[in-house]
Design brief:
Number of helices of chain A: 16
Number of strands of chain B: 22
Number of domains of chain A: 3
Radius of gyration of chain A: 27 Å
CATH topology of the largest domain in chain A: Rossmann fold
Helix content of chain B: 25-40%
Largest sheet of chain A: 7 strands, mixed
Strand order of the largest sheet of chain A: 4-5-6-7-3-2-8
CATH topology of the domain at 9-85 and 111-207 and 354-442 in chain B: FAD/NAD(P)-binding domain
CATH superfamily of the largest domain in chain A: P-loop containing nucleotide triphosphate hydrolases
Structural class of chain B: alpha+beta
Number of strands of chain A: 15
CATH class of the domain at 9-85 and 111-207 and 354-442 in chain B: Alpha Beta
Oligomer: heterodimer
CATH superfamily of the domain at 9-85 and 111-207 and 354-442 in chain B: FAD/NAD(P)-binding domain
Shape of chain A: globular
């Protein structure tokens, strides 16, 4: 309420308690804190004042966790209601003696992408919120668990994780999903604005009978949301999986490879909409390992403008990839394009495919070895030979933990699902309010919550949306 | 225009605060300052225009009614004056939730103005002076006085600018453009340049008003009568409700039609708005009739409210038809409306353009960042409306006085009051039109109700010194009654007697299987506190306003608690102050856009920073870490 007359200068600011006090957070956050690979153990970390309480809600063991001393490990099970998800070890750390300086619970499970994720979702359902990118580190610093010299590093982590998450959350969202969410948001905003216009100008705009109209709309929206949530459950909302990019010079056989990988009765989980003309994308499962495969334009020096755009995109894709499959045409001599590609992918996870083994071979493993030291397989994409060996190699790399999911993609998906569920709950509440005969101004509170939750998926904030919608769609008085 | 005069002399009277302008902002500012012991002088271009209402004849309305209640709760004057001078009163949105109930009164314009002027004239320590102020005197970045058009200098410690729509004002209709303020009053021509000299950046805004028509020329038989409430609620918490139950004057409703719209469309080329003669930005929420016809072309009629301007005048305000079309078109247009066929126009409709400031140059205290002791309030800050002006005037008046007294500045936050939302929006968000209060702008509106403004703010008014001991004691007593009655009804079980079941059935409520408390029953949408009296035998005698609070607090408990939790989070961010001299260029990893916006606006808190468009949550995280490392350094 009151504001200090003297504006604080930074000199005075140093050493005030105010900074530290305010940092005390009340929300409890959770995230998966191991890389999303099938290797080793998966850890879900919960941090914040309710960490113990939340863990107790889902943990079944000999003892209640909150009654246990700090820095102890407990054996038991994680349950989602009646369903047992996994056998786990739970580690308890009370603040301030933890990484974040807050009460922290770590749930170690048997790993497996599906299980770790299921546990995280259960934790979120029981009162935690998905951590924002870099939030554990941020809290650790704000709670005095990291020293001052690390401040810049902390800022960097937050910054880069956010950039990455932002890029992921929107770019990884399927076009169709994005369009659906936008359409729902528009609908919600329109109805909110109508009600608000009427509240602001009751003598010009009437709300008589509007509840009936709205309840129908809300039911439709709930149905659509339900569908989306199911989609998210199946992991189909996000283009998640090991981001795999096929590169090679033109006519090396990249597309035939993709066809070979996809074509044989292997489960195609999705057909990706909205892929760019020049990059084809397929989602495939190799015995439990998800790959998100992108075929790119052949990389070569070119003067053609359109082709150049394709080539640049291919390079960018390769840059972001978790795994690169480099296709070499073994029937043609290595040329400057091959050398450029090899240069570009030196530090990446790469599998080299010597394609066209059915033709006369001009390129040998040794010739490539000189420039690029990576696993190599001879294949014939056309005859579909060597595909099995490729699969095996990918799986081995995955289980050895050499290639991993970008965990941010999974986390983002979990966050987005959480947002969908929030929107669902809010709209349910709108429906209940209408049915209970609550006044109209209560509807818009929950409508706007749903609007905001959906916006967090597509990376849009509210800002002045409502006021703008009111003025543009409805004629106010005076 | 640059001011120059030879006869400079210094007035030797000693003043603490000078208020420039005696509109709704100026009146509240001056009264607050004087009541806090400041020797205060108010300058006005015309003594006849003190507390004038140059546009609509109402006080209150949706969300504006909240502002009036809040001004009153803090110890302001607007509510008291309108309680004495209204000619009709209505609680709007009564069928909706309590958060959007809004009181609106039709004012007797002249009576209102006279009554307010009387309050000012009788306020000890307050002087009124008819004069145009031409310059603000500043030394070493601090205000030292003002100079008026005669050349006289008045020394003071703080200046509050409440110039409304007078700065470089221009009134326009058709091809007529006259350099006057509202109602043909003298515009203020020099002060704009003085502002520019002080490095203040200005906007040019536009607003408008409809015609006034002679009551005798109106055929009311073609219109629907709009009566006031049967039981009138006063604005001021200090007004005895019985004292305001008086006879009311009706308003009337009629509609435009296709013919009206055709007349307008055929003459659009003669409208200064469409020809480009008006450069200022108009408000989207109160469009002129020509705007409505163009923008909402599918609507075949618009409502027109005919409202009396007072008890002792025949002038009627034509609500809904503001315009800047030429006079001949105005006649034709108004006369196409049923009941207005023979209308005689007393005052033409006109648009007005004026200079105002980009309020992002102010602290949330309403003091200029660049000039110490210089405050501003009202339409000069880019808002619109009498109530918005009064609210800012009160805060500016309080803060100017508090500053001189060496006390804390008052900043109401968004969770405390509509006044907080209003000022925060003005000083934080970029706006290209006059800002109007709306309930949808308040994110915690369930907590910011008009009925609990006293519980939210009267303690603050008391601590500042604008609310009397007696009034504060009364509030504490009321709060005690509310708490104990809530406590009681939470524990009274009504059982399942026939009497109980019959009462429930009577109000369409499901009979009980096992007992329930009175509170449980209040939570049912079809029931409320008062109708449960027959089955609540030991109910104590409590005033109606206490019963209302009990009802609301129990009925909407879930929602209220939810908003209170959100407020907790919000407060944390507000409390986190950002050092005045922070250099955002030093904050690594802030995005360039964020650096630019933050450097330009210099928010006082992390909370305010987070509301600046273009500053992302990640930027806020980065900023928090940076501040923490500064704190430890």
């Amino acid at each position: 309420m009151f504001f200090e007359q003297e504006n604080i200068s930074s000199a005075e600011y140093a050493g005030t308690r105010e900074g530290a006090d305010m940092m005390k957070v009340t929300e409890t956050i959770a995230a998966i804190s191991t890389a999303m690979s099938d290797s080793g153990i998966g850890i879900v970390r919960i941090s914040g004042p309710d960490a113990f309480e939340i863990a107790d809600r889902i943990y079944k063991g000999k003892k209640t966790l909150s009654s246990q001393p700090s820095h102890t490990v407990h054996y038991g099970w994680i349950k989602d209601g009646e369903n047992t998800i996994d056998e786990v070890l739970v580690m308890l750390m009370r603040g301030p003696h933890s990484y974040t300086g807050e009460d922290t619970v770590e749930i170690d499970c048997h790993g497996g992408v599906f299980v770790v994720r299921k546990i995280l979702e259960t934790v979120l359902k029981n009162g935690a919120r998905a951590a924002e990118p870099g939030e554990f580190t941020k809290r650790a610093f704000l709670n005095g668990r990291m020293d001052l010299s690390q401040a810049e590093a902390v800022i960097d982590v937050i910054h880069s994780k956010n950039e990455y998450a932002l890029k992921n959350s929107v770019s990884q969202l399927k076009g169709s999903v994005q369009r659906k969410i936008s359409a729902m948001r528009e609908e919600i905003l329109y109805h909110t604005a109508y009600i608000e216009s009427a509240l602001d100008d009751p003598e010009h705009i009437s709300l008589d009978g509007y509840g009936d109209t709205l309840v129908e709309k809300v039911e439709e929206l709930l149905k659509e949301l339900k569908k989306l949530i199911d989609t998210a459950d199946n992991g189909r909302m996000m283009q998640e999986g090991i981001r795999t990019v096929i590169v090679g010079k033109p006519n090396a056989g990249k597309s035939s490879l993709l066809n070979a990988l996809v074509g044989e009765e292997r489960a195609i989980v999705t057909e990706i909409e909205g892929t760019t003309r020049d990059i084809l994308e397929e989602h495939i499962q190799l015995n439990g390992v998800s790959l998100n495969i992108m075929d790119t334009a052949g990389i070569r020096k070119t003067e053609d403008v359109v082709e150049k755009i394709g080539v640049d995109r291919a390079k960018n894709q390769a840059e972001d990839a978790d795994l690169i499959i480099f296709v070499v045409d073994s029937s043609r001599n290595l040329d400057e394009n091959d050398f450029e590609i090899m240069e570009m992918i030196q530090d990446k996870n790469v599998i080299v495919l010597l394609n066209k083994s059915d033709l006369e071979t001009k390129v040998t493993k040794e010739m490539i070895q000189e420039h690029l030291d990576k696993p190599m397989i001879e294949i014939s994409a056309k005859e579909e030979e060597g595909i099995y060996e490729l699969e095996q190699t990918v799986k081995e790399m995955f289980f050895r933990g050499e290639i991993a999911f970008n965990d941010e993609v999974y986390i983002t998906n979990v966050r987005q699902k959480e947002a969908l569920e929030q929107a669902f709950t809010s709209l349910k509440q709108v429906k209940r309010s209408i049915e209970d005969g609550m006044p109209e101004d209560f509807y818009t509170i929950d409508l706007m919550d749903a609007y905001e939750a959906l916006g967090s998926i597509t990376g849009e904030t509210i800002g002045e949306d409502l006021v703008n919608e009111i003025f543009s769609k409805f004629c106010m008085g005076k | 225009m640059k001011y120059s005069v030879n006869s400079v002399w210094e007035n030797k009277d000693v003043y603490d605060v000078a208020v420039i302008g005696a509109g709704h902002a100026g009146c509240e500012a001056a009264l607050a300052a004087a009541r806090l012991g400041m020797r205060t002088i108010v300058f006005t271009v015309s003594m006849e225009s003190v507390a004038m209402m140059p546009c609509n004849p109402n006080i209150g309305g949706t969300s504006k009614g909240h502002l009036v209640k809040e001004v009153d709760a803090l110890g302001g004057e607007m509510g008291k004056v309108i309680d004495r001078t209204f000619i009709q009163s209505k609680m709007l949105n009564r069928s909706k939730g309590p958060a959007v109930h809004s009181l609106r009164a039709q004012a007797d314009k002249q009576e209102y103005s006279k009554a307010m002027r009387m309050v000012l004239e009788n306020q000890p320590g307050l002087d009124l002076k008819q004069a145009e102020v031409v310059d603000i005197l500043v030394e070493d970045g601090k205000v030292t006085g003002v100079q008026i058009i005669s050349g006289a200098i008045y020394r003071c410690k703080a200046v509050i600018l409440c110039t409304g729509t007078y700065l470089k004002a221009r009134c326009i209709y058709g091809d007529v453009s006259i350099e006057t303020g509202p109602n043909g009053l003298q515009a203020s021509t020099y002060l704009s340049d003085c502002m520019k000299k002080l490095g203040v950046s200005m906007y040019r805004f536009k607003t408008g008003t409809p015609a006034r028509i002679d009551r005798r020329s109106i055929d009311f038989s073609k219109m629907e009568e709009q009566k006031g409430d049967e039981r009138i609620t006063p604005f001021s918490f200090t007004t005895d409700p019985e004292s305001v139950q008086r006879e009311q004057i009706s308003c009337w409703l009629t509609y435009t039609n296709e013919k009206t719209h055709e007349i307008i469309r055929n003459n659009l080329d003669r409208s200064p708005l469409f020809s480009g003669a008006i450069e200022g930005t108009g408000p989207r929420y109160c469009p002129s009739i020509e705007d409505k016809v163009v923008k909402f072309a599918d609507k075949n009629r618009h409502q027109v409210f005919i409202e009396p301007e007072g008890e002792y005048t025949n002038e009627m305000y034509i609500g809904g038809m503001s315009s800047s079309l030429p006079e001949d078109v105005q006649y034709e247009m108004y006369r196409s409306v049923p009941g207005l066929e023979h209308a005689k126009i007393v005052r033409n409709a006109y648009a007005i353009e004026y200079d105002c400031i980009d309020a992002r140059q102010l602290y949330p205290t309403l003091e200029f960042r660049k000039v110490e002791g210089l405050y501003s309030a009202g339409q000069f800050n880019g808002s619109s409306g009498y109530e918005e002006a009064a609210a800012q005037g009160l805060v500016a008046g309080i803060n100017a006085a508090q500053k001189i007294l060496g006390r804390e500045q008052l900043i109401l936050d968004r969770s405390q009051a509509y006044i907080g939302v209003l000022i925060d929006d003005l000083v934080t968000k970029e706006s290209h039109e006059p800002y109007r209060m709306m309930t949808s702008r308040a994110e915690y509106r369930l907590l910011l109700r008009q009925d609990n403004a006293d519980q939210r703010l009267t303690k603050i008014g008391y601590e500042i010194g604008l609310v009397s001991e007696e009034r504060y004691e009364n509030l504490l007593e009321k709060e005690k009654m509310i708490t104990s009655e809530i406590e009681r009804v939470e524990h009274v079980n009504v059982g399942t007697s026939e009497k109980v079941q019959n009462l429930l059935i009577q109000y369409g409520s499901t009979p009980l299987n096992s007992g329930a408390t009175i509170a449980d029953l209040i939570r049912r949408p079809e029931l409320h506190y008062n109708i449960l009296a027959p089955i609540d035998e030991n109910r104590p005698q409590i005033p109606e306003e206490v019963a209302e609070q009990v009802d609301i607090n129990i009925k909407y408990d879930g929602y209220i608690k939810r908003q209170m939790r959100q407020v907790e989070q919000f407060k944390k961010m507000e409390k986190k102050k950002i050092p005045e001299d922070i250099d955002y260029n030093d904050v690594k990893s802030l995005r360039i856009e964020a650096v630019q916006k933050l450097s330009a606006q210099r928010p006082v808190s992390i909370g305010q920073a987070s509301r600046i468009s273009g500053v992302s949550p990640a930027d806020i995280s980065v900023l928090l870490v940076y501040l923490e490392s500064m704190r430890r350094a």
